[in-house]
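Homework help board

Subject: predicted structure for assignment chain

Our instructor gave us this sequence and asked us to write out the predicted structure in token form, then describe one feature. I got the tokens but I'm not sure how to describe them. Can anyone check?
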Amino acid sequence: MDINIMTREQVPVTPTHHLPVSLARITVPHARPTYSVGDFGALLLLEQTAPGLSILYKTYYIRHTTSLYETTGTATFYLCMPVNRALRCQQQGLSRLRIPEGQFNIFYANPVHTQYWFEKGRKYQVYELHYTAAMLEPLRAAFPIVDEFLLKTELAFSGQLGTTHTHITPEMLRLLEQICTCPFTGVIKDLYLHSLAARLLLLAVTRLSLVKTPAMDLKLQPYELSRLREAWEYLVQHLDQPGTLTELSQVVGLNSFKLKRGFKQLYGITIFEFLLEARMEKAKRLLRESDMSVHAVAISVGYRNISSFTVAFKKKYGILPSETQKIGRGAWPG
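My token output:
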């Protein structure tokens, strides 16, 4: 799996397959090592693969309090398990998350675009299992939570399987240990990894299905999901003038109550939060890739007050719009 990493300042981090001597002893059988280093610290990534399956062992060594962006070019389902320190992140299309150490959830992204936040002097370890929908499909009939999750992903919605995270069990840890000490090679290795990953996935889904869904959640029908998707697309196309909630409800054919509650339930963020996120993403892209002025970019994403735009942008990315513009044009800020 190809993972692209960028710093908080939007500077690409170049990985290498050559590990420093201090990390040479950290190995997983048949795993490809990747090492990335920068002002943020370092990231050691070990990856085991089998057809339709990628198992990642990530260790972050953080030098300064910062954030990182990780992207992949393909859609993926993945089981995320922080095993050393809580993981704070925000996947595109979802609200900001905090997954406590020793807990997990299952996510879908198309493609993966995630921002992570880290604290100075900390070491973070995360296990991720990336797989295809084919591994979840057999569980669909037995677990309504899986059926609803897959229905959303078939409509290209990002999302998470469990309404809340839950704890990794000792049995799940034993399966992880067996996976990372796989003694086989070739076809037998692939069969071994698939069988253990399937067991791990079944345990994870079983645990997540036991978490009660809040009674306040709406039961969204397929046509309502489609209209919520239309609302998402409309907002993206009209960032400069999205209109009022009442106007948006008329455009997509849902009443204001169901639009507001359904959008929050489906995407994990409010319409306002989504607009802010989308506006900042578009502004960042325009600042880096076009010759537009900061003022013109602000207007194009719906801001009439340049000061409000600057404050929102710096709060999101940690740097000024003008500094992002300089980086995009090949210069360092300051």
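Reply (TA_rk): Your tokens look well-formed. For the description, you could write something like this. The chain is about 40% helix and 25% strand. That's the kind of observation they're looking for.
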